[in-house]
Amino acid sequence: MAATNSRARDGGQRGARGQALSRIDKWQSYRQHHQTTLKSSALKILREPLQSLLTILVIAIALTLPSALYLSVENIRQLSGGVDASAQISVFVKKGARESALESLTAKLEGLSGVASVTYISAQAARDEFEALSGFGSALQYLDENPLPDSFLVRPLLIGDATRLVTEIRELKLVDDVQLDLEWLQRLDALLDMGRKLVLALGVALGLGVILVVGNTIRLAIQSRRDEITVVKMVGGTDAYVRRPFLYSGLLFGLFGAVVAAIILTGLGFWLAGPVNTLALLYQSQFSITGLGFGGFVALLLIGGSVGLIGAWLAVGQHLRNIQPR
Amino acid sequence: MSMIRFDNLCKRYESGYEALRGVSFEMDAGEMAFLTGHSGAGKSTLLKLLMLIERPTSGSLLINGKNINRLPHSKIPFYRRQVGVVFQNHQLLFDRSVFENVALPLQVAGYSQADTGRRVRAALDTVGLLDREKHNPIALSGGEQQRVGIARAVVHKPKILLADEPTGNLDPQLSAEIMALFKRFQDVGVTVLVASHDINLINRMDMRIMRLNQGQMEQDGVSYGGY
Ligand SMILES: Nc1ncnc2c1ncn2[C@@H]1O[C@H](COP(=O)(O)OP(=O)(O)OP(=O)(O)O)[C@@H](O)[C@H]1O
Ligand SMILES: [Mg+2]
Fold this sequence. Notes:
Shape of chain A: elongated
Structural class of chain A: alpha+beta
Function (chain B): Part of the ABC transporter FtsEX involved in cellular division. Important for assembly or stability of the septal ring.
Largest interface: A-B, 36 and 38 residues
Main location (chain B): membrane
Number of helices of chain A: 11
Number of domains of chain B: 1
Strand order of the largest sheet of chain A: 2-3-1-4
Structural class of chain B: alpha/beta
Oligomer: heterodimer
Helix content of chain B: 25-40%
Number of helices of chain B: 7
Shape of chain B: globular
Subunit structure (chain B): Homodimer. Forms a membrane-associated complex with FtsX.
Bound molecules: adenosine-5'-triphosphate, magnesium ion
InterPro entries (chain B): AAA+_ATPase, ABC_transporter-like_ATP-bd, ABC_transporter-like_CS, ABC_transpr_LolD-like, Cell_div_FtsE, P-loop_NTPase
Domain ABC transporter (chain B): 4-224
Strand content of chain A: 5-15%
C-alpha cells in the first residue's frame, strides 16, 4: 500500500510538469494510430460481412455501369477509327472534259480545306478495275463507248467534314455527281459523342449515389459507436482523432468497391472476347476488345477511393458534431 | 495561485432556466472538496462547466490562472487532457477489455504502447484491479466498474479530478472505499472535486464542503451544518 502510494506520487509530479511526451513519441504514436485505425476499420468491415458486402456490391455496381459503357464507347471508337481512314468522297466528272480543265479541277479539290488527299481515276482506269474485279469484262467489250466517267477520290481529314465537302464540291464546275456512301459513319460518330456524354452523366449520377450509400453506412456506424465517441471526446480526443476511423472505413469501402468493379469488368471482357473475335474474323478484321488495363484499374481505384472518402467525410461532418458529452 | 476559480459565474440554459446564479469560489492545487445540495441545485452543471461541456453565460472561470471562458473549440480536447472525470453511469465501453477502457485517455493523447502499458497497470494497481485487466468490464461488479472508471480518470495524471455522484448506487461500505480512493489522489497533489448528496458519508470525511441551493453557493466550509 505504501509502495503503491509513493509510486503514484512520483508519477503525479512528472505528469503535472507535462514532460512526459516527446515530439518523436507523439509522431510515432500518431503513425501507429493511423495503422491501428486502418487495421481495425478493415476488421470492422469483415466483422459485419453481410452489411459490408452489400455496401461494397452497391458501390461496385455503381462503378461498373459507367465504366462498362465507357469501355464500349472506346472500343467502338477504335473500331470505327479503322474505317475513318477509308472514308472517301467519289467525285464524277462531266463527260468530255478537257485535260487542262481536269488539272484545274484537281487543284481546286486539293485547295478545299479539310481535304487529306485527292486521287484521279481516269475513265479507262475505272473500266480496267471494274473488269478485273467484277468479272463482267466481256460484257463491257460489247459497248462502243466506256460508260464510266473520269472521277476523283477525295479523302477528308476528318469524317465530320465530309458533308460540308460534298456540298462544296457539288458547286464546282465540271462536277457531275458527288457520292458519300459513308453517312452511317458520321451517325456513328455522333452516337459515340452521345455515348461519351452519357458516360459522364451516368458517372456523375452514380458517383453521387455512391456518396449517399457510403454516407449512410458511415452514419449507421457512427450511431452504433455513439458511446465510444462520447467517451473519447470526454477524455480529450480531438475531432480529427474521432473522425479518422470513419474516414478510413469510407476509403476502404470505396477501394473494395473499385476492386470488385474491376473484377466484374474483367469477367465481362472475357465473356465478350469470344463472340467479338468470331465477329472480327468474319469481317477479316484484326480487332479485339481493349479491356480496363492497368491505367484504368488505377483510375477506378482513385475514383472509388475518393468517392468513398467524400461520402464518409460528409457523413462525419454532419453527424459527429451532434455527439457531444452531456 | 488557485487551481480552480469561479468568479460570479452564471449559467442560463437555452430553455431560459438559470442553473447557476453568481457562484464564486476557489480551490487551491492539491485541495479536495465536496459539492452538495438538493437535486437540481446545479452540481452537475458546475462540473460540466469545468469540463467545458457547457459554457458560462456570464462571470469567469479560471483554471490555473487562465480564463477558459473563450477557449476555442479546437483547444478543448487539450484542456480536457488535464482533467479527469468520473461519472455515476461510469460510461465504460463494453466492447473492449478493462485495460483498453483505461488506456483510452493515453491513446487519445498519443502515448507510446510501452508507456501506455506501464501507466494503465499503475492506475489499475492503485484501484486494486490489476488482476482484471483482461476482463470485459461487463463481468465486473458495480463497485469494480466504478473503480475502472476512476482508473481511467487518473491514468493520464490529471491536475484536476472531477466526480459526479461517484457512489450513486453503491452500498455504504463500497462508497467509503471509493471516497478513500479519491483522498489518495489528493494526497499526491491532484485537485479533487466530488459532487455528492450522500451527506452522511461526506460528513464523516471531515473535508471542505460546498453547498449549492437553487444555483447559489449557500455554504462553503469545513464542517457541514446540514439539516
Ligand atoms: N441541458 C439543460 N437544459 C435545460 N435545463 C437544464 C439542462 N441541464 C440541467 N438543467 C436544469 O438545471 C438545473 C440544475 O441541474 P443539475 O443537473 O446541475 O442539477 P444537480 O444538482 O446535478 O441535480 P441532481 O442531484 O439531481 O443530479 C435543473 O433544474 C435542471 O433541470
Ligand atoms: Mg447531477
